[in-house]
Amino acid sequence: MEANNTTSSLHxxxxxxxxxxxxxxxxxxxxxxxxxxxxxxxxxxxxxFGASNIxxxxxxxxxxxxxxxxxxxxxxxxxxxxxxxxxSAGIIFQLQKQVSEMQSQLARAKAELAAVQAQHxxxxxxxxxxxxxxxxxSEEYSPYIFQGDHSxxxxxxxxxxxxxxxxxxx
Amino acid sequence: MEANNTTSSLHxxxxxxxxxxxxxxxxxxxxxxxxxxxxxxxxxxxxxFGASNIxxxxxxxxxxxxxxxxxxxxxxxxxxxxxxxxxSAGIIFQLQKQVSEMQSQLARAKAELAAVQAQHxxxxxxxxxxxxxxxxxSEEYSPYIFQGDHSxxxxxxxxxxxxxxxxxxx
Lengths: 170, 170
What we know:
homodimer, mainly alpha
């Protein structure tokens, strides 16, 4: 009795043993993952999976992964209590739907980008062709020189286009 | 005894009662969701949640939602057996990561689209300004007329731009 009293004064029973109203031994499989303060955490997991199933799950996996397994079980149990019909599966279906919608949005954005890029390259090519066809001394109407509120000039596009074309032959 | 024999010959026990080795009564709470042929389905759910928990879950929700609840429980149980460490939570975390990555991709695509659109509008505005500054009889160099491989013309952009500007004043 004295030894038992000493043990119980040194070690509080873990949250699982408190809820299951049993003696918490040094070999308790649940104590490392449900310390005395984590009553709610064990209570939730216990309500959904049952203590014996939780112990069985933990015994089937390496010790190094048991803390992660407990976290995922508690997460799933919380989700099941919040949504008793669909639980974690409901979240998975919603996320899969969101991924599918975002894939469509992304495909549309990429198609739109490709279309605007093609339109832009087309206009730039037309402008550059026209620029090259103008006489060199026609400064007044030369598309190489633009003034006003716009910071970029056709010259930029034509030079960029020349560089790109040159790179094909070097 | 004769009545019992007649009942058992008319109704096969449900998958749950077969696995639990108990008599399947007309009031069996699991029979509607685990017919005799669905042995694996019940076996999986039973291994993860336990029969008593499954019955408890079903009793806590309206009858109209019980079939969905069984489907989600079986789904989660299958996921837990395939991934004993992370189960459904692992799928949720992966999907959340995928959504987050796709949100970044979408934001980048939208920013890139806005940049190309701005660049394109800038070039179109420059071209149209230049086009309006040319003399009307300068057909040879008029940017309204383009020939070659390109199907679109600066005229399209300038007309579109005019329409847009007009709409501000109407």
